[in-house]
Each structure stands twice: as structure tokens, then as C-alpha cells.
Prior knowledge:
With 193 residues, the protein is α/β, with parallel strands linked by helices.
Amino acid sequence: MARKRVAILISGRGSNMVALIEAAKDSRYPAEIVLVVSNEPAAEGLTRAAASGIETAVVDHRPFGRDREAFERALQDRLAAHRIELVCLAGFMRLLTPWFVRQWEGRLLNIHPALLPAFKGLDTHARALKAGVKEHGATVHFVVPEMDSGPIVAQAAVPVRDGDTEQSLAARVLEVEHRIYPEALKLVAEGRV
Ligand code: GRF
């Protein structure tokens, strides 16, 4: 079966992107990463993608001001030009409109650094520590118009330890993120979800 053509959308560091790129280097992996798009021209992940020989593009949201759909149409044009079949959000810090999300229904994944439905939104690690939860983790889910709410594809838990800081907890969660995102994309690309 042909490998699914995947684009990864990033805004920053791109460590989850790297995990997906690494997994897809195996020719038996059911997806290939053909494009990385960042809305931030200075995103570190762009350099890392280029170093792996992946085509990169910048679609800066700023020139579009408040017109989110215009930004997304520019994004959509890039994805269409590369005949993209699946999109992975990996630290992509823009909210997407229902218009965009509907175009990609069932073909758009996100990774969230918490055990959804707990701790939707930002600053998940600080909030988990404040709440005193004993387990925290990460979730890969399909994107729906409502933020951090779509059907869950994969999830992994980590313990919260006494003395954890936001940084130590984030690092523990990030390790499982890098494991479950490639697993989740594999399942989706194989049509097993
Ligand atoms: C990750 O923790 C991811 O779950 C969240 O943003 C962070 C991105 O990190 N959505 P990276 O850019 O993949 O290193």
C-alpha cells in the first residue's frame, strides 16, 4: 500500500516533529513526511527538518492579521500543492477555524501534553502540579473544532513525583510524547483507527 503523504505543522522546537521524521525513515512505516510548515519564521524545528532533507515552508500568520481563514487558505494551498493526505500538529500554536478543521476531518492529528480530557489548553504541567494529580501524561487525538477535544488515538501516563518541577515533569511527559505520536500516526495511516 502506498505510504500516506504527511505534513507536520510546527511553531517552535519541533522535537515531536523529529520523532515523526525518525519513525518515517523506516520504509515499512506507513507514512512519509513530505512537508514541514511553520507559522513562525524563526522556529528551530525548520532547521531540524531541513537537516533531515525534508521540504519546509513558512506561512507567517502575521500578515493576515485577524483573518484566520485567509491564513489557513494560504496553509491549505501549500498542503494541496504537496498532495498531503494527513496533517500532524506538533507544537503548532495557532487555533484553527472550523472551516480548516472540517477540510481535514479524520485526517488531522494533534499531540497535547496532558491526559485529556484533563488539562485542556496551555500550561498543562504547571496546572497538573498545582492540582496535585499523581498521574499526568500525553494524548494524541483527532482535531475537531472545539480545542483539545477530539477522539483520542493514543495516550500514555507518567507518574508525578514528589519534588517535580514544571521542567522535570515536562521532560518526563515529552519522552512518552515522542513514543506515542509515531505510534498513533502509524495506526491512522494504516486505517486502523
Ligand atoms: C509538546 O509538549 C506538545 O505536546 C505541545 O507542544 C510541545 C511541542 O514541543 N503541543 P515540540 O515542538 O514538539 O518539541
